[in-house]
Task: inverse folding
């Protein structure tokens, strides 16, 4: 499994994101899960050392949740920030499209070395690598918008968990083989009225007002 963690300036303000980060790190340590950090308009050193906005947010959390829990979050932030990843400004000159190309290239390399050379193609544009993806966890900052068309080529996608995502378009491109879909607080506008996933076993969209 591959987890792509997108750190934004407000990431540490979310207790939920921090809790998920701890769980992802545990999966890394127990099952050698691949973690790829992305620093979206935030200095990696501020994530690693919990300074600036990260430090202020954690200080506020500590008053509410206590030292022990915040210490776990800090440890997870430091570990993930030390992993090899990408900085939007330094690695992609501030261009999101360039950053996405780099991420796709790495994901395809991890999934299967055979697919390494197709990474030059944009996300979702007839890449065999997309067809190899079976599990995906999406956690994107509000500033990033993802086209739902990227799912149209993921024919083998079985498990999809969306922690945070601003989508461009409804989820009508989900593959028919999908078994699990988890997206709490999913906006109603993203669920098409004719959505038909006959093989879906688990659908969790609590707090979505549907």
Result:
């Amino acid at each position: 499994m591959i987890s792509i963690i997108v750190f934004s300036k407000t990431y540490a303000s979310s207790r939920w994101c921090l809790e998920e980060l701890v769980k992802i790190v545990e999966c890394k340590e127990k099952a050698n899960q691949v973690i790829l950090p992305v620093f979206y308009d935030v200095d990696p050193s501020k994530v690693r050392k919990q300074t600036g906005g990260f430090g202020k947010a954690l200080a506020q959390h500590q008053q509410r949740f206590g030292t022990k829990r915040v210490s776990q979050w800090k440890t997870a932030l430091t570990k993930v920030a030390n992993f090899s990843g990408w900085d939007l400004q330094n690695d992609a000159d501030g261009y999101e499209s360039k950053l996405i190309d780099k991420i796709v290239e790495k994901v395809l390399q991890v999934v299967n070395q055979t697919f390494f050379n197709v990474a030059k193609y944009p996300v979702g544009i007839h890449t065999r690598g997309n067809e190899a993806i079976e599990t995906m966890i999406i956690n994107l900052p509000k500033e990033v918008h993802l086209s739902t068309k990227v799912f149209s080529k993921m024919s083998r996608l079985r498990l999809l968990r969306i922690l945070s995502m601003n989508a461009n378009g409804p989820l009508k491109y989900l593959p028919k083989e999908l078994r699990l879909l988890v997206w709490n607080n999913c906006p109603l506008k993203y669920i098409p009225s004719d959505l038909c996933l006959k093989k879906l076993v688990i659908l969790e969209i609590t707090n979505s007002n549907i």
About this structure: The chain is about 35% helix and 20% strand.
